[in-house]
Write a structure and sequence with these properties.
This protein is α/β, with parallel strands linked by helices. The protein folds into two domains: about 40-320, Metallo-dependent phosphatases (Purple Acid Phosphatase, chain A, domain 2), CATH 3.60.21.10; about 330-525, Alpha-Beta Complex (5'-nucleotidase,  domain 2). Helix content is about 30%, strand content about 25%. The protein contains 17 helices and 27 strands. The strands form seven sheets. Strands 1, 2, 3, 14, 15 and 16 form a six-stranded mixed β-sheet that branches. One of its GO terms (biological process) is nucleotide catabolic process. GO terms for molecular function: hydrolase activity, acting on ester bonds; metal ion binding; nucleotide binding. Keywords: Hydrolase, Nucleotide-binding, Secreted, Signal.
Length: about 550
Amino acid sequence: MRSTWELGLLALLPALVSAEDVLYSERRLQKRYIDGDGNWNQSFFHINDVHAHLDEFRSSGTDCTGEISTVINERRPVLNSSLFLNAGDEFQGTLFYTYYGGEKIAETINQLGFDGMTLGNHEFDGGDDMLGQFLENLTFPIISANIQSGHPVLNRTIKPYHIYDDFQLAVIGVTTETTPDISSPGENTTFSDVRTAVQNTIDLIRDTTNITRIAALTHIGYDEDQALAQNTTGLYLIMGGHSHTPLGTGQDEEGPYPTIVRNLDDEEVFIVTAYRWGEYLGYIDVTYDEEGRILEYHGGPIHITNTTAQNETLQAQIEEWRGPFEAFAAEEIGTSNVVLDQETCQEQECLLGNFMADAMLAYRRNESDTVDFALINAGGIRATIDKGPITRGEVLTSFPFGNSLVEITMSGDDLWNVLEGIFSGVNLVSNEEVTSFLQVSQGIQIEYNPKNDNGTKLVSVSVGDSDLDREAQYTIVTLDFLAGGGDNFFATPFEDAITLDTQDEVLVAYIQQQSPVDIALDGRISVHAELRWTKLATAA
């Protein structure tokens, strides 16, 4: 059972970190390990979706691995049984990854002292070979029960679970099943059903060991964490990532920390996650009974700010790593009179999506007058480009994947089906989930109605000055990621795609040509007029 003072203190924790340090440290020193009733106290620190934010990413000082290191190094020595776990997506998001790949990330997280990590989808962005190099440099266990790989390094280093003998505790890892659709794992690396993998691993641990305390370290998202908890037995704690969900932060939170749901045996399962980018360090302390069930808990997300002391040695090292790419990244390539927003790109037409697609179209039309339009996935747009000077670093942060442009040709009928799949969320040929919205260039206009229940979301599509001709052939500029099957836009890869320059270099050249950038939305992707009028009438 949970005491009211613990719950009250949990709600106040983000604002009372110093008081929490003193109070909880005293309590832990008084009662640790198995007590007379066979119970066990275990502390967990956890982090997720850091996305290469080794250094501060806001003027307020939000996040710095030097600051996280300080918090961990101060708190763990007073805990007799603690683990520091990483729920994945260390890759992708800043120039520390774009410039160094996984090298400096591996060096940093080794120094932070993690006890285990599961893999996020972005760990596969550079392919299996790059991930293999990263994994060989790590000094702690890598766990994911639903990954099967024929790659020799991945096969050797990724285990389904790890047992921490000192604590008689097992931690199972899992990675989102959508990874092949949204990242670039090799053909011989597959991802099985998460719930089946977790339950099978729980059963294996219980059948072959005396371990009853079992936790999961997941990279599947907050909603899927809850579904996992509700559809398994024998699992009582889930530490997750992937969805960048703020829990218990007191501001813009999407749920309590922990979130408690009931499993198939009607027992409580505790779910925690720690937002993104290292802005929060998750912390939960639980008491297990002999059967591995959680009797009580306390803790909460710890906010990392510029008032948190830094590990000066680690911070100096990170500053040194900045040197080689800082001058390159700081080069101004143009200016913008408007904010090129990324925030709405997964929901509707957005300025940065328009601008990137227009850049691709203009680039190809310099060499070929047969191309009709450009199409990209909104999921590949990672950050807003602010109003004012635009630097190379901003371009690389917004489009960090190193994708190449490709030219493909398809029939109007196939194009209609592709667009229908994107707006309905399911590829019409493969029946696979489409995992991103789209953005398009000038040259195509799409009207859709998300409320349609007549089997189609599309209302109309025009290319150039004419309605889409189902029997005509259209030439499209897109990305190699999409042409190869990414996000399930296209049912089969385009073997005859023409490979062109990289996305970031095309955008840099376009910014230089268009500066100062001054654009507005033009309705190339629009919601059906009747639905728009309904929304306006409702708002009025």
